[in-house]
Task: structure prediction
Amino acid sequence: MTERTVGELGEARLIARIRDRVPPYGPSVVLGVGDDAAVISPEPRRLSVVTTDALVEGVHFEWRLTTARDVGAKALAVNLSDLAAMGAAPLAAVLSLGLPESLEIERFDAVVEGLIDVARRYGVAVVGGNITRSPGPMFIDVTAFGSVHPRRVLRRSGARPGDELYVSGTVGGAAAGLRWLLGADAARVRAGEQEADGSNAVMDAVARYRQPEPRVRLGMLVGRNRAASACVDLSDGLADAIRQLTAASQVGARIEGGAIPVHPSVAEVEPDVERRLDLVLSGGEDYELLFAVPRRRRRTFLALSRLASLPPVTRIGELTASPDLVVRRQGHEAALPRGFAHFAPVG
Amino acid sequence: MTERTVGELGEARLIARIRDRVPPYGPSVVLGVGDDAAVISPEPRRLSVVTTDALVEGVHFEWRLTTARDVGAKALAVNLSDLAAMGAAPLAAVLSLGLPESLEIERFDAVVEGLIDVARRYGVAVVGGNITRSPGPMFIDVTAFGSVHPRRVLRRSGARPGDELYVSGTVGGAAAGLRWLLGADAARVRAGEQEADGSNAVMDAVARYRQPEPRVRLGMLVGRNRAASACVDLSDGLADAIRQLTAASQVGARIEGGAIPVHPSVAEVEPDVERRLDLVLSGGEDYELLFAVPRRRRRTFLALSRLASLPPVTRIGELTASPDLVVRRQGHEAALPRGFAHFAPVG
Result:
């Protein structure tokens, strides 16, 4: 092959490169990549769950801060996180790519491989897509489908005053990882002037930013066991997630600032103790899940969270009848800050 | 409201503007815009059909050649055309928008209104979406869902030698309309130097380019009555559609050049008779349907096509056991030209 860029290769041959990499379909895929549309056999007596999310070069990723494999993987992972927040089992995805003509074929292949790797790991059939030229940045838009039992849907609404708030895993790691990548140390590493010498915590934070792990199994199990009254994912940060869940459920919340499970890297990248809580509340992209748990379901919920290979969950506060959103910290109370906004410029 | 651009308004308020415009949902939508994902109740004993297609500013549309309403309408229409080509009934759609921060709110609203207008016309529930900033062109990516009876799927494969090829409506109009828009007359109209003085045929061609009409009802009726052995839509031109259908069905085709139902504007925008057939075969975006019809189904197929408010269908050739793709014209035969490529620059 003498072509070097996707512009030289053209749409049909790019689609063929995706088709060649897609794993064999299971019996639920009637028609995959290659017709006017894909055809899927839905599971009987299940509802279909649908979500869409795009990553745009210069907004959600920059080539100097990540790898092409990670971009492809993240494009699917962020959608699986949305399915997880509904308690849905992921089934299939379609992929819409906008590519600058100068994009290297090698990079294109790596994006596709990263996405297919995540698809394989979570049993998602890549059934179709679309490739177009982009005269600006690259974008990768994924729509993912799942299924859920009608009475086991985890909504944002449904929580009540007195329910406890739990978050999975740790918070602030992705934002801390991004901050480290944007800083001077990472620039020197990229320039080859020094070895990557972040601590283990910082390197883990970078991995959380680049390769988020959607909490698919946790969301499904909590949904199946009706162990939560509401759920939302942390794509736009903890403060935003709390705001979304409480607004949909028409309740308020009191958060214990000291109870939030902060990623260990946060203390390293943010020396100012006051600002640390802001990073934890407003930094986005952790893709953890926030649950509202009625007190009578607490034992079931905590029993689930102790199952092997599930992330830990931590109680961070409770819902209130008063609509205020309050964070308590070292004796005093403050209003919850605004969340992370993807529409605002980053970097 | 003092804000003028989408960047000033921000993601949450843009989503609210979409939600406010979405028509009330029918009973099959369990959860629409506003949660982590949408939840739909699939029709029992039907397969789900899924397709995705994006329009990118500078590739698929330019603001100087179209209106914002038409961009929104077309973004959904091109996806409904794919569903029609499968014989599927459209049900729902999700919308992913990439917006330059400087985009006027007025333009944003018009794009959304155009899309919702088509959604309302075809009974499509707009159940979710995503808005992000784009540092380059605007893009609008739609994923549409439909349903079809398992034994009534119209595939690209399934046609056999001896089957007749039919095309709906007329061909070449969208390409002729675009060519007129790119020409000197249209530039003078835009500059206010003269009134739009294209003939009726040319004005109709411009409308076909800007406001394609997906052949939803025709596709569904042909599928339901099993009146065709294969089908594909004409998004990338007639030659490309013939190529896709014959490749998937492993047959060849002999096309009667003189039988193709050419849009009346083509003769006006392309005075050269030789080049006219090229425009008709390779010009894209007509969004008509190409059907392979077994001879024993011809009467059923033609009876359907005579139903009120369906476009006419025209026999343009037949499929052959020999794999060649041949166009006959005024006694001599030539190879079918390559189709329209969205990946190549336009305009």
Observations:
- Chain A touches chain B through 72 residues (CB under 8 Å).
- The mean pLDDT of chain A is 93.
- The radius of gyration of chain A is 21 Å.
